[in-house]
């Protein structure tokens, strides 16, 4: 056996359009409420404060390692 892990899509802070944001939001909602399709779900969108903290990103898409613990 194997386990299936689903991840929500994190926010983008650069080069996003309203249409892309709507698609991301709809897909994240589907991921959150379709829990019978996987064993575990990691809500990256929630953990990233929905993109409100701009200091978490290097370039608007990729996370930095500022808060990384050794």
Overview features:
globular; two-stranded parallel sheet; single chain; 2 strands; 2 helices; 70 residues; alpha+beta
Describe the protein in words.
The protein has helices spanning 18-33, 44-47; strands at residues 5-7, 40-42. The protein is an alpha+beta fold. It is 29% helix and 9% strand. The radius of gyration is 14 Å and the shape is globular. It has a two-stranded parallel sheet with strand order 1-2. It is built from two helices and two strands. The longest helix is centred in the middle third of the chain and has 16 residues, at 18-33.
What is the topological layout?
Elements (H helix, E strand, L loop, with lengths): L4 E3 L10 H16 L6 E3 L1 H4 L23
Largest sheet: 2 strands, parallel
**Rg (C-alpha, Å):** 14 Å
Detail the poorly predicted runs: none
Element string (H = helix, E = strand):
EHEH
Query: Which secondary-structure class do the elements indicate?
Result: alpha+beta
Number of strands: 2
N-to-C terminal Cα separation, in Å? 32 Å
Count of DSSP-assigned helices: 2
Shape designation:
globular
- Measured by DSSP, the beta-strand proportion falls in 5-15%
The spatial strand order of the largest sheet comes to 1-2
Mean pLDDT: 80
Helix content: 25-40%
């Amino acid at each position: 056996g194997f386990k299936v892990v689903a991840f929500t899509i994190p926010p983008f802070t650069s080069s996003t359009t309203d249409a892309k944001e709507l698609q991301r939001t709809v897909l994240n909602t589907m991921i959150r409420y379709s829990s019978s399709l996987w064993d575990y779900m990691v809500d990256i969108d929630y953990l990233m404060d929905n993109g409100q903290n701009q200091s978490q990103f290097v370039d608007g898409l990729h996370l930095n390692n500022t808060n990384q613990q050794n």
